[in-house]
Amino acid sequence: MDPTRAFMNDVKRLIVKVGTAVVTRHDGRLAVGRLGALCEQLKELNSQGYEIVLVTSGAVGLGRQRLRYRKLVNSSLAELQNPQVELDGKACAAVGQNSLMALYDILFSQLDVTSSQHLVTDNDFRNDSFRTQLSETVKSLLALKVIPVFNENDAVSTRRAPYEDSSGIFWDNDSLAGLLAVEVKADLLVLLSDVEGLYSGPPSDPDSELIHTYIQEKHQAEITFGDKSRLGRGSMTAKVDAAVCAASSGIPVVITSGYATDNIIKVLQGKPVGTLFHKDAHLWSSIKEVGAREMAVAARECSRWLQTLKSEDRRKLLLNIADALEANESSILTENEADVAAAEAEGYEKALISRLALKPGKIAALAKSIRVIADMEEPIGCILKKTELADGLILEKTTCPLGVLLIIFESRPDALVQIASLAIRTGNGLLLKGGKEARQSNAILHKIITSVIPESIGDKLIGLVASREDIPDLLKLDDVIDLVIPRGSNSLVSQIKSSTKIPVLSHADGVCHVYVDKSANTEVAKKIVLDAKIDYPAACNAMETLLVHTDLSSSGLLNELLAELRREGVTLYGGPKASSLLKLPEAQSLHHEYCSLACTVEIVDDVEAAIDHIHLHGRHVVSHTDCIVTNDLEVAETFLHRVDSAAVFHNASTWFCDGARFGLGAEVGVSTSRIHARGPVGVEGLLTTRWILRGSGQVVNGDKGVVYSHKDLPCKHKYNLFQS
């Protein structure tokens, strides 16, 4: 639960207000599906003991649509050629209210919920006895688990134009909802809109950011509102006014989307959905709260200062980080143990807890890998190619940082250390978002690392993103963030790819195969298969599918392999052939990443069949690591050159597919992309190139005075002078 929403545990009575844009479709007709989902949410909450009051808009818009239709079908040809007179708003309200309430009654009845209708005007609330009676009536209905449904009675309002006029005790259903929340002493007001919440500008503006907690002192002067509701008379301005008013009276308010099927439930679970208004909000968050764009821009500025450091100074910075981690090992492990205990209490899967835990010796190993990165050859400013374009005109192709990286990773806090080290070595700015299950571990590691970054660079070089709700705002910043690297489940990777214009460097499922050919050495095969599966089954480079040549099913090696795996506690599933021949339970899918002590076994006819299986079930465009165990060098070369994976091994465990083991020091992840970097991504994968041209006053002038030589020159100085 978001700590700023812990008060949701005490909510019993809530007001839900649904806007016209949620109730109706773009053509003005009722959005029956959305209303059905809304009623189902309210039914579930009602059965859980919540007391619910519903305030609904939509009558005027719905009535207008129906009356326009009636006028159209009853008009003569001559009348249709004349300009249409605008329909009376009160008539629209009267007609629409009937249809709206009839639908609510039908939907609630289908869910075995009883509702009641209440039409009120602002004049009603001028009468103290009415207000007292209203509260008593609502109290009685709620005690009977009835859901009262309120709407302003626009049809008989005494205001000149109630569907336009903003005067009176309340002037629309947003302000009515706020007033009712105070009158009936609600614990929470939820205002449902057609957008996710309150944005810093019009939601259609790509630079607008969702505001998760409204702080009046900060936001009231910064927000630019978009258009009013497409169908109703309300707007986000009206919702904010109502929310501020209710919050100041002690009623917490959340503005969120009514298009989602479970947002009200998520709000009550304390999840950071929509925009929260609370009288104490200014105490929870600094007025100078850093937004997504500000964080990304700060990381870019700091990275530029980092790039000005000489290679030795960046090396010393990394060595200082390694020392600081070892000096604070006790504090790190204490925070990590708290995360592991919380994850176990929450019932997380063993594979996730395994990745979360910092096992004994892990801090020392991380410090060692940082020192390896520090001692690597200088990566920035390396002259890859030097060409004389013409006399006195020298062109250099040099390496440079990518810019600002956004890394979204799950479970493993050690990934934070590795990624930060690689970013510093390559001069990149960094934004990190770890999983909530590693919140305390990530926080202490980030604090230790940034504490040793010199003031001349700034600790904002590495930003730690606090909330998952900030990710959508960050993914919009394609003008500031240069690369996104998601490390986690296939669903996480797919979600990120579909949500951003920023280039994404990623891997899909780590379905790694080991193919044991008929000429394989028995002992070598056993060692490789066991190591690839049991050493760390939660990792993405662990074996998930064992392919075995059909000849081995009769030689005994297959049975020996299966016996060894079972002895180590591995649960075996079979493909179509193996399940039939070996009496194994059939695997639900031949493309499955277990991340645990389980794997699929299948029998293939030969190396060609093994390759075909990998390409079909490894989904070849995103394959991770595949291995062949064989003593036949010709077969091995066929496998190595034909299997289209990020990494392909002969007689070596898939476990070797790792940045540290490849000599990269560490990795930001294993990429199965085809562009820029593939396989374990270390220092080189975080660099791009730029061209530097040195001349002495040359101009093109239509190429009349230039004699091109395009002569390759030796790179006498491997690095730019600035980096030496």
From TrEMBL:
CDD domains: AAK_P5CS_ProBA (cd04256), ALDH_F18-19_ProA-GPR (cd07079). Residues 293-563 form the Aldehyde dehydrogenase domain. Pathway: Amino-acid biosynthesis; L-proline biosynthesis; L-glutamate 5-semialdehyde from L-glutamate: step 2/2; Amino-acid biosynthesis; L-proline biosynthesis; L-glutamate 5-semialdehyde from L-glutamate: step 1/2. It catalyses: L-glutamate 5-semialdehyde + phosphate + NADP(+) = L-glutamyl 5-phosphate + NADPH + H(+); L-glutamate + ATP = L-glutamyl 5-phosphate + ADP. Keywords: Amino-acid biosynthesis, ATP-binding, Kinase, Multifunctional enzyme, NADP, Nucleotide-binding, Oxidoreductase, Proline biosynthesis, Transferase. InterPro entries: AceGlu_kinase-like_sf (IPR036393), Ald_DH/histidinol_DH (IPR016161), Ald_DH_C (IPR016163), Ald_DH_N (IPR016162), Aldehyde_DH_dom (IPR015590), Asp/Glu/Uridylate_kinase (IPR001048), G5K_ProBA (IPR041744), Glu/AcGlu_kinase (IPR001057). Its EC number is 2.7.2.11, 1.2.1.41. Residues 12-257 form the Aspartate/glutamate/uridylate kinase domain. Gene3D superfamilies: Acetylglutamate kinase-like, Aldehyde Dehydrogenase, Chain A, domain 1, Aldehyde Dehydrogenase, Chain A, domain 2. In the N-terminal section; belongs to the glutamate 5-kinase family. In the C-terminal section; belongs to the gamma-glutamyl phosphate reductase family. P5CS plays a key role in proline biosynthesis, leading to osmoregulation in plants. PANTHER family: DELTA-1-PYRROLINE-5-CARBOXYLATE SYNTHASE (PTHR11063:SF27), GLUTAMATE SEMIALDEHYDE DEHYDROGENASE (PTHR11063). This is Delta-1-pyrroline-5-carboxylate synthase. It comes from Hibiscus sabdariffa (roselle).
